């Protein structure tokens, strides 16, 4: 399931920090200016420095919404009018968050692009006033400074940031299909240079404080403090404020200059950028790269390039105008709605709706040190969970331990960890061959080979040594949990936890409950998953659960398409051009041909004709020839260490030729191939909701995008049906049904939606 | 803090302007009341324990502590240690053959003399039949040498132990890079010319970039000064407070030096140079001068500067400790008992230098004493900010409850009993040797001022700390 690795990394940035819906309304203060009470902002004066503290009530984060903005301007106007105040400091009272961004709901409530453009214009005007302030303003940044928060900060004259891991600066708008709409596209290139600004705005990546200092995004760093006479976070904010006040004073006394010393490299870059020809080349290069990576499926990055270009080539006025217009246009696109939907879904799937478990799981034991087992161990130990990793052989165990170490060490190389932290994290891992210490385990996750009798044996062995409260979780992609639980003495403690490979990169965790699984067991599994940093969907037990079950019919169609004579390379490019991060043939190779065969056989047995399509014989023959995919070096492609461009495995020609079926020309255009794949996927997903495997469409979308690589620009199968139109989907299915029969029969829920256009999965 | 400092500023010879301005503030009355410590009744008459041998300090000496790069700069660490050891021999006249064992502390090890205790002892004229070992525990290495000796004596293994410490910061082992070292080692193993040539062909210029030892925590890569600055900020200790404290240390040290109170110093004739008789880092300045300095670690707005930090120092110290009955049998009049001690450790990142805060209440509890029982405090002064942060931490119930698991604070030591003869800020801080200086300062102060109990405590890299009670030997 490497499929959605790309999105995984893309959306990890957004994970929990960015643009949040505020969830509160300041109804009581509609006339607040008259009352002079402010809910989001308070301000005091230290000497001749005004300290403006932002602290939105009832929320862990500050978001730029209308109330906050108007209070802020009110305060700033007071400051500008006051004779006593000569400079100002802007700071958040919330540890861990400066301003996490603009309020998404503010945009979502807009009906037209003009309304959105209007919001952008207002933001631009506000920040322009800050930029032109004659009294220097210092932004004191601790915690997330993202999106609109960053645009605010870069409008100030000076920036001081706390040098801790929580302090991140960035422009994640692109991940929501929009662009920085409050002057960011215009200011950022001037501040950090065009190449760096493009990098920030096109990737949406988070920038840590020390990197930000090097880039010139912040002017000073403040180290976080340890305990003193107050809790560390509290005192650190206070200290940041003290330092910021000194700098504000220094700036107004002209003792400190806001001019930054540029390094040689920066000087060279800015010189190069003054040559129009060089600029044109850069725009061209960046645009090419973006087109290649997005396949033209995402409009936002191209518009960002366009807006930046306009600002530089035609001046500020034109730049601001273009920014606000494009901002308005983008906010209304399907892609943006899909991405925003995913963002909301992700926030939901980061919560434990089952409540806190009775006993927090602190001691974990993992059975099987294979790729999955070791991956699960890695994401557990680095969150401070004591973890036993048990394997049957010393060699297997050693391989797993090395995998965990390597995963951590790679972080050291990227400077995300120090070598000392790596060592101390690694000491949470206990590798062993026996069941020693299992009497203390709160949760056992088995990741042994996918074989029911083996899982049964392991379950019985484990139940003999674990304490009563201990949860037994099975990491399986297809074996029904109730069958595994059948031999358990305590089926209420048995649950499925389906991780995706590679575990440290893939964000999704699919938790599977049987009828007997207790609520507390589920709560405990979700709590552990959340601790491991996962986005979690909880589904009912059934063949293939949700994710595997959706993937199987699509894979079956992949086989048919291959049998119909479409080259693996062609198929891959067709699927990726639709927005899947990995091509369909490559996906089979990555998953493993033997696994795919196993799963197809199982599910075909369970679902019968509906899962038909291509012949499993194709997979069988591949397995018998040893073409197991990437792990064996050969599958549809040939994999060689160090070779980047993989070649098609020519030995496959014979197998494919022997199983060839004639293509049906009426449903074999490129577009039809797209839709044959996608509609089967979508149909099965909707059926899972219809059958109650899925509890909500949100979980269905999150599972599909984060676990299977369903194109994020479509927002997931359910969002796709909403945005594309259920009727259209049903029509397509009917057309294919006419050609291929039952596998394409639309499910009842989908038909219901098609029949009543008002019915939507997302209201 | 300033109000505490007023008391001392009164005693200072220099009545500069800043001192005057603080006189206006009301003097804290407590400091006046506590002025005659010896008169107070103690919680305990003595700390002797039944069935445990009393361990005494017969005497202790140190060679003058010098700023590194000055008169000792061409010597090796064992030269300094040897000088301290021969000074001890001269001072105490101890018969060489009664010394059972020698222990030295050191931090930055000279590779050639990794057991510097043995090399120094051999050269200092001790018997070659006396074994010696070297210990290391950052700035409390000498403390570790002493307490190791105490353990050996108290457990009845030995009667007479010499403990000391040495540090030479004028020369530190700077290594070749790992790649270069590997190559040199491989070259040693290479048998044929071909092998050698093929190894040499792998040489790259960057192999030559050296590895310097840093005064930084291995676990956090943070330099100690940086951590001290953060600590001072965490406890909201101002730059002015720090400078005032540093000035106090230098002024008191100068006074003690001038009055000849630093009797543990023995002169050292440096080969090829003049005889060194005095510590050379004592330099009382003015607050105005100190205020001009730029922050040394957190730039440009930090508060720790060269003037309010201890400086890199060369020096060595040595002490003769014995079982009490042995000392008496040999006809000595000991200076002090070495009593209860503790080692503590905590978070090396944010509480690196808070050792004294953790160690003080623990050692007092262990000994059954209170802060009021202590007549002489000798704290290791790594940085002004560190000392003042420790004072604040010791005086905070919040800190005691939230970080130390104690119900109440222990209280900060009264300044009039505190480091009265200067401290590491002014006298200098040869990492491995400071512990013995602290104990001798406490013992000598108790003798001079007539107190009974002294408390010695220090912080150390690694987030560790130490405290020990010194009891004056009855006159």
Automatic annotation (TrEMBL), chain A:
UniProt EC number: 1.1.1.211, 4.2.1.17
Active site: 510
InterPro entries xref list: 3-OHacyl-CoA_DH_CS, 3-OHacyl-CoA_DH_NAD-bd, 3HC_DH_C, 6-PGluconate_DH-like_C_sf, ClpP/crotonase-like_dom_sf, Enoyl-CoA_hyd/isom_CS, Enoyl-CoA_hydra/iso, Fa_ox_alpha_mit
GO CC annotations on file: mitochondrial fatty acid beta-oxidation multienzyme complex; mitochondrial inner membrane
UniProt entry keywords in alphabetical sequence: Acetylation, Fatty acid metabolism, Lipid metabolism, Lyase, Membrane, Methylation, Mitochondrion, Mitochondrion inner membrane, Multifunctional enzyme, NAD, Oxidoreductase, Phosphoprotein, Transferase, Transit peptide
Domain 3-hydroxyacyl-CoA dehydrogenase NAD binding, first and last residues per copy: 364-541
Associated pathway: Lipid metabolism; fatty acid beta-oxidation
Positions marked as site (Important for long-chain enoyl-CoA hydratase activity): 151, 173
Subunit structure: Heterotetramer of 2 alpha/HADHA and 2 beta/HADHB subunits; forms the mitochondrial trifunctional enzyme. Also purified as higher order heterooligomers including a 4 alpha/HADHA and 4 beta/HADHB heterooligomer which physiological significance remains unclear. The mitochondrial trifunctional enzyme interacts with MTLN.
Stated family: Belongs to the enoyl-CoA hydratase/isomerase family. In the N-terminal section; belongs to the enoyl-CoA hydratase/isomerase family.
Protein name: Trifunctional enzyme subunit alpha, mitochondrial
Organism of provenance: Enhydra lutris kenyoni (northern sea otter)
TrEMBL record, chain B:
Species assigned in the record: Enhydra lutris kenyoni
EC numbers: 2.3.1.155, 2.3.1.16
UniProt main location, coarse: endoplasmic reticulum
GO cellular component terms, semicolon-separated: endoplasmic reticulum; mitochondrial fatty acid beta-oxidation multienzyme complex; mitochondrial inner membrane; mitochondrial outer membrane
Domain Thiolase C-terminal: 332-471
Entry GO MF terms: acetyl-CoA C-acyltransferase activity; acetyl-CoA C-myristoyltransferase activity
CDD domains found in the cross-reference section: thiolase
Gene: LOC111154153
Record keywords, A-Z: Acetylation, Acyltransferase, Endoplasmic reticulum, Fatty acid metabolism, Lipid metabolism, Membrane, Mitochondrion, Mitochondrion inner membrane, Mitochondrion outer membrane, Transferase, Transit peptide
Main function: Mitochondrial trifunctional enzyme catalyzes the last three of the four reactions of the mitochondrial beta-oxidation pathway. The mitochondrial beta-oxidation pathway is the major energy-producing process in tissues and is performed through four consecutive reactions breaking down fatty acids into acetyl-CoA. Among the enzymes involved in this pathway, the trifunctional enzyme exhibits specificity for long-chain fatty acids.
Matching InterPro entries: Thiolase, Thiolase-like, Thiolase_acyl_enz_int_AS, Thiolase_AS, Thiolase_C, Thiolase_CS, Thiolase_N
Gene3D superfamilies attached to this UniProt entry: 3.40.47.10
Pfam families: Thiolase_C (PF02803), Thiolase_N (PF00108)
Quaternary organization: Heterotetramer of 2 alpha/HADHA and 2 beta/HADHB subunits; forms the mitochondrial trifunctional enzyme. Also purified as higher order heterooligomers including a 4 alpha/HADHA and 4 beta/HADHB heterooligomer which physiological significance remains unclear. The mitochondrial trifunctional enzyme interacts with MTLN. Interacts with RSAD2/viperin.
NCBIfam families named in the record: AcCoA-C-Actrans
Gene Ontology BP annotations: fatty acid beta-oxidation
Subcellular location: Endoplasmic reticulum; Mitochondrion inner membrane; Mitochondrion outer membrane
Domain Thiolase N-terminal: 55-325
Catalysed reactions, semicolon-separated: tetradecanoyl-CoA + acetyl-CoA = 3-oxohexadecanoyl-CoA + CoA; hexanoyl-CoA + acetyl-CoA = 3-oxooctanoyl-CoA + CoA; an acyl-CoA + acetyl-CoA = a 3-oxoacyl-CoA + CoA; butanoyl-CoA + acetyl-CoA = 3-oxohexanoyl-CoA + CoA
Family designation: Belongs to the thiolase-like superfamily. Thiolase family.
Record-given protein name: Trifunctional enzyme subunit beta, mitochondrial
SUPFAM superfamilies: Thiolase-like (SSF53901)
UniProt enzyme class: transferase
């Amino acid at each position: 399931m490497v499929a959605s690795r790309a999105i995984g990394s893309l959306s990890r940035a957004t994970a929990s920090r960015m643009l949040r819906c505020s969830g509160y309304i300041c109804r009581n203060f509609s006339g607040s200016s008259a009352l002079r009470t402010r809910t989001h902002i308070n301000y005091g004066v230290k000497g001749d420095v005004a300290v403006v503290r932002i602290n939105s009530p009832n929320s862990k984060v500050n978001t730029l919404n209308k109330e906050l903005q108007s209070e802020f301007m009110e305060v700033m106007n007071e400051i500008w009018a006051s004779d006593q105040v000569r400079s100002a400091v802007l700071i958040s009272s919330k540890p861990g968050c400066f301003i996490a961004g603009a309020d998404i709901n503010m945009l979502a409530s807009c009906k037209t692009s003009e309304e959105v453009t209007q919001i952008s214009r207002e933001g631009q005007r506000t920040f322009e006033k800050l930029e032109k302030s004659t009294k220097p303003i210092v932004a004191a940044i601790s915690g997330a400074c993202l999106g609109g928060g960053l645009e605010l900060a870069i409008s100030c004259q000076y920036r001081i940031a706390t040098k801790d891991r929580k302090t991140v600066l960035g422009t994640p708008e692109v991940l929501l299909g929009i662009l920085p709409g409050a002057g960011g596209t215009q200011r950022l290139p001037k501040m950090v240079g065009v190449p760096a600004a493009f990098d920030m705005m096109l990737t949406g990546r988070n920038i840590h404080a020390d990197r930000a200092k090097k880039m010139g995004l912040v002017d000073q760093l403040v180290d976080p403090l340890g305990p003193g006479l107050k809790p560390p976070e509290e005192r650190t904010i206070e200290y940041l404020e003290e330092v910021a006040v000194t700098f504000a004073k220094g700036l107004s006394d002209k003792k400190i200059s806001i001019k930054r010393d540029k390094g040689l490299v920066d000087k060279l870059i800015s010189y190069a950028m003054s040559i129009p020809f060089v600029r044109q080349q850069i725009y061209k290069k960046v645009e090419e790269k973006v087109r290649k990576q997005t396949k033209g499926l995402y409009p936002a990055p191209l518009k960002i390039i366009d807006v930046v270009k306009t600002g530089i080539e035609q001046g500020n006025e034109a730049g601001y105008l273009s920014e606000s217009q494009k901002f308005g246009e983008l906010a209304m696109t399907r892609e943006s709605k899909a991405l925003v939907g995913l963002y909301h879904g992700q926030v939901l799937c980061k919560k434990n709706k089952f409540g806190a478990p009775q006993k927090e799981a602190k001691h974990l034991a993992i059975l099987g040190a294979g790729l999955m087992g070791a991956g699960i161990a890695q994401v557990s130990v680095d969150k401070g969970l004591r973890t036993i990793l048990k394997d049957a052989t010393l060699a297997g165990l050693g391989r797993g331990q090395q995998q965990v170490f390597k995963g951590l060490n790679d972080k050291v190389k990227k400077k995300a960890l120090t070598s000392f932290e790596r060592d101390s994290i690694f000491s949470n891992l206990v590798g062993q061959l026996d069941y020693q210490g299992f009497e203390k385990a709160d949760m056992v996750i088995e990741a042994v080979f996918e074989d029911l009798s083996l899982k049964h044996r392991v379950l019985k062995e484990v139940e003999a040594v674990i304490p009563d409260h201990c949860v037994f979780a099975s990491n399986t992609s297809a074996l029904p949990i109730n069958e595994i639980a059948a031999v358990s003495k305590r089926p209420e403690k048995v649950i499925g936890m389906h991780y995706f490979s590679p575990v440290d990169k893939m964000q999704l965790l699919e938790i599977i409950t049987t009828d007997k699984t207790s609520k507390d067991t589920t709560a405990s599994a979700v709590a552990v998953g959340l601790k491991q940093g996962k986005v979690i969907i909880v589904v009912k037990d059934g063949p293939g659960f949700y994710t595997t079950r959706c993937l199987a019919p699509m894979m079956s169609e992949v086989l048919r398409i291959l049998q119909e004579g479409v080259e693996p390379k062609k198929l891959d490019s067709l699927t990726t051009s639709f927005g899947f991060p990995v091509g369909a043939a490559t996906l089979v190779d990555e998953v493993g041909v033997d696994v795919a065969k196993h799963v197809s056989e199982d599910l075909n047995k369970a679902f019968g004709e509906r899962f038909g399509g291509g012949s499993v014989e194709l997979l069988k023959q591949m397995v018998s020839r040893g073409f197991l995919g990437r792990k064996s070096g050969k599958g549809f492609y040939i994999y060689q260490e160090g070779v980047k461009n993989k070649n098609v495995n020519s030995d496959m020609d014979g197998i494919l030729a022997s199983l060839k079926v004639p293509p049906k020309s009426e449903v074999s255009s490129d577009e039809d191939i797209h839709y044959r794949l996608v509609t089967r996927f979508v149909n099965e997903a909707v059926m899972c909701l219809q059958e109650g495997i899925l509890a909500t469409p949100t979980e269905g979308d999150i599972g599909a995008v984060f676990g299977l690589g369903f194109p994020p620009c479509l927002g997931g199968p359910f969002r796709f049906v909403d945005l594309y139109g259920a009727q259209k989907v049903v029509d397509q299915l009917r057309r294919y049904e006419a050609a291929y029969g039952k596998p394409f029969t639309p499910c009842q829920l989908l038909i219901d939606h098609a029949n009543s256009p008002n019915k939507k999965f997302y209201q | 803090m300033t109000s505490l400092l007023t008391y001392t500023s009164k005693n200072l010879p220099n009545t500069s302007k800043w001192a005057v301005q603080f006189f206006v503030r009301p003097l804290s009355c407590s400091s006046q009341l506590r002025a005659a410590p010896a008169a107070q009744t103690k919680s305990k008459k003595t700390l002797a324990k039944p069935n445990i041998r009393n361990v005494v300090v017969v005497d202790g000496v140190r060679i003058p502590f010098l700023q590194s790069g000055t008169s000792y700069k061409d010597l090796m660490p064992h030269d300094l240690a040897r000088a301290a050891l021969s000074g001890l021999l001269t001072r105490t006249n101890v018969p060489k053959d009664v010394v059972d064992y020698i222990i030295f502390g050191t931090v930055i090890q000279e590779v050639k003399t990794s057991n510097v205790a043995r090399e120094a002892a051999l050269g200092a004229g001790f018997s070659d039949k006396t074994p010696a070992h070297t210990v290391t525990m950052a700035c409390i290495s000498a403390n570790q040498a002493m307490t190791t000796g105490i353990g050996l004596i108290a457990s009845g293994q030995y009667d007479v132990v010499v403990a000391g410490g040495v540090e030479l910061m004028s020369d530190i082992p700077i290594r070749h890079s790992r790649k270069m070292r590997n190559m040199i080692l491989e070259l040693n193993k290479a048998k044929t010319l071909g092998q050698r040539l093929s190894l040499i062909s792998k040489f790259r210029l960057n192999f030559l970039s050296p590895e310097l030892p840093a005064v930084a925590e291995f676990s956090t890569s943070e330099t100690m000064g940086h951590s001290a600055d953060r600590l001072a900020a965490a406890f909201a200790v101002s730059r002015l407070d720090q400078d005032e404290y540093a000035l106090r240390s230098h002024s008191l040290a100068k006074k003690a030096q001038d009055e000849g109170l630093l009797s543990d110093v023995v002169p050292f004739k440096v080969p090829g140079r003049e005889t060194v008789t005095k510590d050379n880092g004592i330099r009382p300045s003015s607050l105005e001068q100190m205020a001009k300095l730029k922050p040394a670690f957190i730039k440009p707005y930090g508060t720790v500067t060269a003037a309010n930090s201890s400086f890199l120092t060369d020096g060595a110290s040595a002490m003769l400790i014995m079982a009490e009955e042995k000392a008496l049998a040999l006809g000595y009049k000991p200076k002090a008992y070495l009593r209860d001690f503790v080692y503590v450790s905590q978070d090396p990142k944010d509480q690196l230098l808070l050792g004294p805060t953790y160690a003080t209440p623990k050692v007092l509890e262990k000994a059954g004493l209170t802060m009021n029982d202590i007549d002489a405090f000798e704290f290791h002064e790594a940085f002004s900010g560190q000392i003042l942060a420790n004072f604040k931490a010791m005086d905070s119930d919040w800190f005691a409850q939230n970080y130390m698991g104690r119900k109440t604070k222990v209280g900060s030591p009264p300044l009039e009993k505190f480091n009265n003869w200067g401290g590491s800020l002014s006298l200098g801080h040869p990492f491995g040797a400071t512990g013995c200086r602290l104990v001798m300062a406490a013992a000598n102060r108790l003798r001079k001022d007539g107190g009974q109990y002294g408390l010695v405590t220090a912080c150390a890299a690694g987030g560790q700390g130490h405290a020990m009670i010194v009891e004056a030997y009855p006159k």
